[in-house]
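Q: I have 263 residues here and want to know how they pack in 3D. Can you give me a structure?
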Amino acid sequence: MSRAPVGVFDSGVGGLSVLREIRARLPQEDLLYVADSGHVPYGEKSAEFIRERSQHIAEFLLAQGAKALVLACNTATAAAVAELREHYAELPIVGMEPAVKPAAAATRSGVVGVLATTGTLKSAKFAALLDRFASDVRVVTQPCPGLVERIEAGELDGPHTRALLRGWVEPLLAEGCDTLILGCTHYPFIKPLLRELVPESVRLVDTGAAVARRLEQVLGERGLLAEAGGESAVRFWSSGRAEQLARVLPALWGEACAVSSLS
């Protein structure tokens, strides 16, 4: 069972930022990745729809032999992780949440900005995070409609993406934010552009590395860590246009790979 793969999914290509962290920390693990790009972005969809898609993808990944699931999507985690854990009680399932706790600890000005999808910002899970970890700081939220679509298209630093991002970041800086939470797994891919738009003193916080650490912990507790050594494999699927994911993989994953289609 320890040689079985880990299944990872997101609404699109954003979860590749988490997949990179998992590969860096657990290079011996075989990985399966599903981009639900036929239904991106999740942030504008109903919680019921996201739960249905998450269930569908979870069943697909389990049929491929996955020994654990990673919901590499803040919105999917907020909408579906509790139901998936109830449905698959024996399966290790790791979710995502915006990095409110480390951002609250890092801020010096006492003001934290959050860039996220509408779905994440409206979720009860996000509200609970604020209540639990941000009672002593001021949190300024900024929904980013359209940004996921730009990243899905591989437009990480074009004029349209730059204009969108500047329009969202400047009000946060004006409010005194010295720490920005990247509350969507797509957003780490535009970190280089963000660094051009904010002062060097502003910290950018995401949770990909924390998810990889948590996955390692959970697999270790269950005796499911793959043994070191030997070659590991990664397989990709998309519910959108497989050729579109294949086109952006060299830039976002670091190498070209074959992509299969998923309904």
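Q: Anything worth noting?
A: The first helix runs from residue 16 to 25. The chain has eleven helices and ten strands.
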